[in-house]
Amino acid sequence: MRQPEPKSTAAVSPEDLPGPGVAVRRLRHPGRWISGGIVLLLLAFIGRAFAVGQIQWAVVGQFLTAEVIIVGFGWTLLISACALVLGVALGFAFGIMRLSENPILRFAAWLYVWIFRGTPVLLQLLIWFNIALVFPRLYIPGLVDERMVDVVTPFVAAVLGLGVNEGSYLTEVVRGGIGSVDRGQKEAAHTLGMTSGQTMRRIILPQTLRLILPVLGNSAIGMLKFSSLAATIAMGEMLNAAQRIYFINGAVIELLFVCAVWYLAGTTVLSIGQYYLERHFGRDAATATSERRWFKGWTRRPVVEGEA
Amino acid sequence: MSLAVKAVGIRKCFGSHEVLKGLDLEVTHGEVLCILGPSGSGKSTFLRCINHLETPNGGYVWVDGAIMGYALSRGALQELPVKQLRAQQSQLGMVFQHFNLFAHRTVLGNVIEGPMVVRGLSRAKAEARAMDLLEQVGMAAKAASYPSQLSGGQKQRVAIARALAMEPRVMLFDEPTSALDPELVGEVLEVMRALARGGTTMIVVTHEIRFAREVADRVVVMIDGEIREMGAPGAVLSNPADPRVRSFLSRVLA
């Protein structure tokens, strides 16, 4: 029995077939032009609103390089960098603890993630800033004995708040990265006589680091933006500086735009850096073929060697 | 011939499932022993118990003067700290089915890792020795390659060199050719034949009956966690007494 034919195509008999040089008319996509046009129109509308709105662009330009803003951006960068370093250190420490043989260590790491990933980072910043209400003195015998309010300056609170919070996310990432280095390599290291510490340092972590590099790039970008939350605890970073200016001169939107320009500049530079870092590691002979795949898709489990 | 390995009453359970039901085995220096058996018979687990990658639930393994994982004190086995267990494990070379090469190290890096980190050899010394071993397994030309750039057969030859670099008293092979494409099996078996000729003590879990017949001094057939047959390959493979061994062999030799 013959199948019914699709509506739009009529049967072509062999005698009617054209020669090899027959012209081909491509399908048109009017929908693409229409959707593109709508988007352009919307962009133009938004652009116009900003152009004719009550924004003194001259003021934006004037404050873009103002000393207070530049110094504030410096603090932004410093807070972000310190918090990221703290976050990475905590992420590795707790990520390794999460996989410990000791159930109490495992539980402690779980508790850390549960608390710090489960509460808003702004709340955590405020708690760190007021930590003196819980621990009035910082006392380590023979080392430190100070009033907590003197120790936890806005800068310290910002770094602690952002870093400890970031660490809770990175803990899970590190755990996943360690888990994705296949178990066989660990066993191989053990049969060579390497201790657990040596195996972790020399075999597992170097491969984990490569796997989580893209995540660290995203963390750095996120951290740069989240550092603006420190403005709420009187930390004189860029947003705080901008606020202090517009409380006086009233140029609110202008100064917020100044901040936006600097944040965008920062995140753009970090994105470019991340791109080259990933490309560098992607190109590395060590990450040829199979390893490069896990690098791109770090959430996927790598192919166990030899199974491919 | 003096004794190299003696396993006494090895038992291993995974949950309520008893995988090894009290195995005894003796291997002398320079002997090549092949362990055959259907999949799931516990032969890999037995090999992993020998070097304590799996801790036996009962029994113990004696290797060349020391009890693996334990010290004999006042008539009882006292469990050793992990560090000392690792030192014992480094006396046994292990070759895995899936090679387990360190993916972030070159071929040379894989071979020098143990000697440098565990034995404390200088890099120059370790590299010189590693190159000799890579020469021996025919992989010297690939010393600077990464594992992901090698074929399965090449990876396994590197893995053998890596195990040999620790100058082990005994070499253990856990189905070394099972993960390989058929045309790559030969090159690995060739390396193993050369090792056997050189007098290396070897315990080989394998499905390669021909290899066992040719190279092994003795063959063990395991079924359901027990040793059902043990003896010279000619006798065991051609004329097994145990009916289950006969049926297993007739299936694999068919």
UniProtKB/TrEMBL annotation, chain A:
Residues 73-274 form the ABC transmembrane type-1 domain. The chain crosses the membrane at residues 33-57, 69-97, 109-131, 211-233, 245-265. SUPFAM superfamilies: MetI-like. Keywords: Amino-acid transport, Cell membrane, Membrane, Transmembrane, Transmembrane helix, Transport. It is found in: Cell inner membrane; Cell membrane. NCBIfam families: HEQRo_perm_3TM (TIGR01726). This is Amino acid ABC transporter permease.
UniProtKB/TrEMBL annotation, chain B:
InterPro entries: AAA+_ATPase, ABC_ATPase_HisP-typ, ABC_transporter-like_ATP-bd, ABC_transporter-like_CS, MetN_ABC_transporter-like, P-loop_NTPase. Keywords: ATP-binding, Cell membrane, Membrane, Nucleotide-binding, Transport. SUPFAM superfamilies: P-loop containing nucleoside triphosphate hydrolases (SSF52540). Its main location: membrane. It is a peripheral membrane protein. It comes from the Bacteria. Residues 5-249 form the ABC transporter domain. One of its GO terms (molecular function) is ATP binding. It is found in: Cell membrane. PROSITE patterns: ABC_TRANSPORTER_1, ABC_TRANSPORTER_2. Belongs to the ABC transporter superfamily. This is Amino acid ABC transporter ATP-binding protein. It comes from Shinella curvata.
